[in-house]
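Sat 14:20. Reprocessing the chain from the morning session after the first attempt stalled halfway. Input below, unchanged.
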Amino acid sequence: MNQLETPTRSQKDMELWFQQVTSPGSRLLSHGVVPKIQPKFVSCSLEEKSVTLSFDVLEWELNPQNVIHGGIIATAFDTVLGLLCHYFTKPHVVITVNLNTTYHKPIFMGTTFHIKGKLEFQGRSLCNITGEAWTQNNSVLAASSTAVFKALREIQSNPLV
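Finished this time. Tokens:
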């Protein structure tokens, strides 16, 4: 399936779409901040309307306390939750309306963390999505997030469509 096509609603097609948009060389990873945080596909569930991506903590992402900067975690949430919204609202462009992030535990250099996003509600133009960031092996809940995204109905230039 070409990442420019509207995905069908099957588990296999959902997996292929997320693998494509997070693979090196995809349009998603061609510019901006997203390729710098290096999201990697872990899993997805059409039935649960969820996706999990992983992120390695990189040295440039550290704050003065030598843990990952909260803004990087928020960016990772925005990426995961936004992609999930985009999958379910294709071919529309989605924008973040609101993103709330709560930090529970620090995430240290050398750690891999996973973010699982779940679509809680999809209306005509708004989606409510929740997310949790867990450290390796789902051992520590490091952060949680809620977000609202808006699907724009007018035609926009979108590299993921």
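The CA atoms of residues 105 and 142 lie 4 Å apart.
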